[in-house]
Queue: 2 jobs
Job 1
Amino acid sequence: MSRTRTGILLALGVALIYPILITDPYFLHMAILVGIYGLLAISLNLLLGYTGQLSLGHAAFFGVGAYLSSLLFLNLGISMWGGLVLALCGCGALGFFVAKLAFKLRGAYFVIMTIGIAEVLKLVALNWVDLTKGPMGLTDIAAPQISLGWVTIDFGQKVPYYYLVLFFISLSVILQHRLVNSSFGRAFVSIRENEDLAESVGIDCYKYLVTVVIISSSIAGIAGSLYAHYVSFIDPGVFAFFISVNAVMMAIGGGQGTQAGPILGAILFTLIPEWLRIFGDARMAVYALIVIFMVIFMPRGMLYYASQLLNLGKKSHGR
Amino acid sequence: MAAELLDVNHLTVRFGGLTAVNDVDFSIYPDEIVSLIGPNGAGKTTTFNAVTGFLRTHAGSIAFEGEELAHLKPHQIAEKGITRTFQITSLFPHLLVLENIRTGRHLQERVTLWDVLFNTRRKRRVEEETREKAEDILNFIGLVGKKETIAASLPYGEQRLLEIGVALAANPKLLLLDEPSAGLNDTETQGMKELIRRMRAKSITILLVEHDMKLVMGLSDRIIVLNFGKKIATGTPGEIKANPEVIKAYLGERKGDAKR
Amino acid sequence: MLFVQYVLNGLIIGGAYALIGIGLTLILGIMNVVNFAHGEMYMLGAYFLFTFFSKMGLNFFLSVLLAILTVMGVGFLFEKGILKPLRRRSIDTVMLSMIGLSMFMQNIAMLIWTPVPESIKSPLPMETYTLGGLYFLPQRILVICAALLLVLLTHLLLKKTKVGKAMRATFQDLEAASLMGIKIDRIYSFTFVLGAGLAAASGALLGPIFTVHPYIGNLANLKAFAIVIIGGLGSFAGAVTAGLLLGVFESLGAAYVSSGYQDAVGFILLIIILIKRPTGLFGKVRQLR
């Protein structure tokens, strides 16, 4: 069995028994957050790592997913399962519009536009008080329960929610793997590598860019929905620039354009802001320094430099 | 004579005030090797860009197998069966040689998103096919040994070969080569010449832009000469060599010695 | 009449916007740097005015000048310390570095001046003057006069001085400019410092009008980018026009539609321009890659 396969099964095994080994609720909480942000990181990695388009507004999809799911539950009484579907479709649709708008703009223009969209949505969430309760936010967003015969699984508890998030992460990893190793994946990468050449061999770059944005935004929306029903309270802060920046750091920090990168990045950049609490008020200043450091000195992500260091005989594969 | 594969009529391309291609007519027939030559700035690459959809035409028609191409996008034109190489080396730099070729095969891979997401049998079959066909192409161009090398790290001559491999992967009927021998040494140029002949033997029609007159004369069935955007001559190598207009256009450049 | 008042108010704020916009369009156009830290120059301009004037009690106009000069110094350090070493890196790397820098500046400001919003009391009389039915606050008159003056001075600098010509040459063709003997490093430094100074001026002028807190740079930054794109990359006239337009539309939007969405006006205009005319009002076709 190949080394990668073993590694994945090992990781999956550890993930499956994690809640049994670690019972401290704080570490479970961290693991759930890692999973939710991992989804966000995977979604961004598809866009940034593979097609090479930087988005600094992914909080837009995250936030919309959170609000759609929450409002569906609070106003119409539909459980999280429906919320997840709505988040997926709603963010997918939003992604479609963003993609159509953004295709004409590339590079920095696209980045600025993504920032702008997230900011506008934040303003909407702040000001449309009738719908979103403005800065007060939405509370009591409950997670559902499932009854299987005589057993009831209460997703309001950490352990079941952990497995739920693990399920979605696993699904996304499989999706990412299948996409990447297909003509779609090669088309995505060709956009990053050389768009003119791609067009000249028949790759409709516009179509693939729209496709990747829709897939990316849908996954980010699901992450938002899972977040809302976990923390049970959301406010316009779900559109915060920090979330978008941190998501980019996850996608880059782990290793752009790799499959394991976003997971590693999610672990790193969920934990780092936590560890920085020891700096008190200077916390975000140190975070900013880390961002600058990583962007300048480790643009290929931790995975690459770690493997160089450990000199694993990894096949040098793309970026 | 067989019907034309490519029929260009009254092609005109303008950049602001400059008319780069001015009312140019020519035809390419199946299985021909045709060279497009002319002094620098004559409009050769511009013609290529117009035919392959990278530039908008201002007048004229470009018909391929009877179908009008003039307002199609490059990827649509590739679908019709025309691919090209570029004047400046154009590859997928960070990808492996094998992956470069596999990417080129995109048009032959008929899979839907559903196939991909659910890893259907069709998808797996297509992946296998792509892998095989990519190996075939690598053998054909002579780069099999380098298939796991990163494209950007190949020596220049092999990069130019890889470019052709990528364009071939799309299974074209007509292949446009933009200065394929630029920067190649004598041995590499000979190899390029043989490769072009082998491609023609596989029923791929070739249209090339070239400055190496020896190569042009030795390889071409026909030659089209442009100067200042206008077609000034067309004919067999023998006819072109003796054509006074052509000689005048190249005055100051020694024939057969225009290699860089 | 009320309408004219709103337009007037909008033009005044727009004048200050034009200053940030000009700085950014110069930096973007000449240096090809997506300066996400530009808003922080604006923020520091306001905060240094606060320190020199409100805290240290120096003369108001002197304080404004000192604030601008201090921020120009900071800008000089940034350019030499961060931008110059990164010159050969990809545009994404520079962008993300500037974002990191911007976050860093915001948090340092928070540590130095605390996150509590401050207000700077204008030394000018607080009573409004009326002229022809329109109301004028002296501080606002100062803003528009200062803005006009700075725009004029910058215009003259670009058109008439040697360094201005060198800047324009570098904008048009980097290689040719360098071959002509223009010291690109110096031009870049000068451009960045000039841009920082204009942004600081904007911050200092608007400081007494709006409250000052560490995150005012965020919105200023986004508006600056909107102005640059709407006006056309690298276009001086474009930045001025777009700045004024933004000010006016924000003012009208706040008055007739809703004040909460005031800050969204810029983005809406931005999106419209990006759809209809991506090169901007005055821009030539030039890609930001």
Job 2
Amino acid sequence: MSLLTLNGMKTNIGQYAVLHDVTLDVPEGGVFVLLGRNGAGKTTTLRSIMGLWQPSPGSVLFKGQDITAMHTADIARLDIAFVPENMGVFGGLTVEENLILATAKGRFDPARLKRIYELFPALETFWTKQAWSLSGGQKQMLAVARAIIEPRALILIDEPTKGLAPAIVDAMADAFREIAQNTTILLVEQNFEFAKSLGRDMAVIDDGRIAHSGTMADFAADTALQDRLLSLSA
Amino acid sequence: MQQINDFAGRLGGVYLLPVVVAALAFVMIGAPSSWVTLTVAGLAMGMMIFLMASGLSLVFGLMDVLNFGHSAFVSFGAFIAASVLAWLSGWLEADAVSLNIAALFLAFGAAILFGLVAGWFFETVIVKPVYKDHLRQILITMGALIVAEQMILAIWGGTPVSVPRPEFLEGSLLIGDITIEIYRIFAFLLGLGVYAALYLTLNRTRIGLLIRAGVENREMVEALGFRVDRLFVAVFMLGSALAALGGAMWAGYETLITPALGAEMMIVVFIVVIIGGLGSIQGTLLGAIMVGLMANYIGYLAPKLALASNMILMVAILLWRPNGLKPAVK
Amino acid sequence: MNALSQTTTSGTKAVKAAVLLIFALLLFAPFLFQDVRALEVAARVCVFIVLVASYDLLIGYTGIVSFAHTMFFGFGAYGAAISLKQMGPGWDAVLVGALAGMAVSLIVAVAIGLLSLRVKAIFFAMITLATASVALVLASQLSDFTGGEDGITYRAPALFKTATKLMLDENGKVLRIFGVKINGKLAAYYFVFFTCLALFVMMLRMVGSPLGTVLKAIRENEARAEAIGYRVVSYRTFVFCIAALVASLAGTIYAIWLKYTGPDTALSFAIMIDILLMVVIGGMGTMWGAVIGATMLVLAQYYLRDLMGAAAKATVDIPVLPHVLDPDRWLFWLGIIFILLVYFFPKGIAGTVMAKGAPR
């Protein structure tokens, strides 16, 4: 069953046409990876789904409901979480305050909080510290924690491993694998190795269009296709 | 140099600045009694200006909106409070302090109510249509300022309006050979109370959390499920109400007000907001106190420089901290 | 103006025709309109066209919002006024005054420009506002020098005296062509007209040149312009200085014409508001807009107020209406119109008309 469907999405930013025709189906459960080169339109796709940029024409269907013209805040209330490229962490707020904003009632579910402490111990250590004092990796953890502090149906994550140390990347991969057992993740990545280990289904976006879609297993086996679409020449 | 910076940082950083200025003034003025009078006057003035400026700072920090019409709320607040006080002058002259306070309460309350309603109207009709466009914002809000000033002129006329004060706030306290005007103490305490209320709201409530987060990153707050445009209206209304209260208190301070009040205060308010940094009430308070103190000290020490002192202060601080003393974290 | 990024539409032709008409009316004003007041209006229009056009350079072409423009106008006016008063009515005074005004304007413009390097563009508008208000206060305070609130009156060079006869007829009296005396007043008017024309043409050529293209690029997308290689800060400071110098000259010219300079004619915020109104009504970023806006507003200021007064008297028996039409309410209605214009016609008259019509 398709959780999220994008149909012929075109998005213009100012005078620039970034997305020309994006059509894809994200099935429920697991990790769906959206790959592509720099500037291909990956971030724009996520932002368009989230309503931060208005796709026109084209449509976005979530659980069968047309969310194309909805306000970002209303889209978020459908239990779709967004972890942007710049993490969107509020520097002047403490870790606790950052997380509490993501709760519906201003209270934490003790079980879920415990799970977050287990996945990302640093957050417990820095609980009352202002977020600007966290390292890049810790900020990324905070951004992801914010997306899972309450149950979500879909989590959009934009390039979480950018600029992170390899050890943290591994920890991130483990965390995502565990999270994906209970929800659907749409992951945008340039780091192919990271994506390969996580993704079940995938698509490649190139120049604002979907150039390929299928299973990760098939794509990972086809090095010629990888070269062509991602320019990963050995 | 670095050591001085660190030392200053541990002592409170930029919050030291008013203390330093006050200390310097003490040395230069010489007579302690004069210094106390001037400092109290400066603090009181600073508090009133803080009320006028805090709305502008928060609105710009949160909404990225430049409201050049902000001081219209100050003017209206002043004139509305003046009218209410004149209407209730019987209560003001009465010996019963409770009647005095009631009159004051009603006058300030009327100003605040006006600020809330007019703020809502202003945001919905004038500001909202030009959200993204700074140029049109500046132009359209300037137009609104002109219209507002003309409205005051039409309703209250051009002659200065005198503002009656309640009995219990008239006069001065005499401590040794130091004279302190009672109204100034009142203004300072009221302003401090409002600041404390603002501070608690911003730091201990959910809506305060939203405002602080929104000042940093509006988009992310939306992506977390909150309708930021509704937050905008609320903050704008609050800012306008605060400005009106500041105007009302200023009316009591000056006891004689003219329709040009708004335009006069506009420059001061902008300078305070620039000095203090946009988006944080701490910054605005700091800027306001600095301006209040400087205005009073320089008015005493070098009256010719008095009017230019704000400019000089602004330039000096901008050269040191181009973003203001304590802008919101972005 | 070659069409750089604008397609020439039939609207553009209409606007240019209107501008040409205004130019013709101004050129022949002394002969077309026989009363003294009309000549005052015409001179004021000429000066304000230049003042507003120089402001359009800032706000329309480069996207800089400044409230200090009247201040530069004032520098030029007071420069001429003070030197004409101190040195007597001669051409040397005019020259000294003009240069002094320009020098002060340049120094202040550079100072403001340099400060703007360190602060956000958003603070810039506020800083110009603060600077202008300080200048206003200084002018009224340094009253020995500037005449304070009352201003300074002085005489213009002898050539411009009304009594000066430029051409004589057979009887030795002043010659009249089409009923207009060829005297000093006429010379004064044409001095204003031709100097303003020269300044306006100079600015036209500036915006039509490669410089104009760069300014437009900066306005559209500053980051991009910087990335392409233009030092945005240098260009902005340069334009700010040029605009200040032109405004200063406009002030000098007006001071010579009026033979009086005071805070209300040269420095007040009312003038700044007028400039804003004119540039918004006329249309930003079009130069022609300055012509149209200045003409319309000056005409309205002089003749509409009279109209309002007459209308108020005529409707004195109807409730409310006389209050609403009272000429004292003039500024109120102007403010409302201004708001409506910014809201509905952000491009102003020239801009909106030029955008319409079939592209050619």
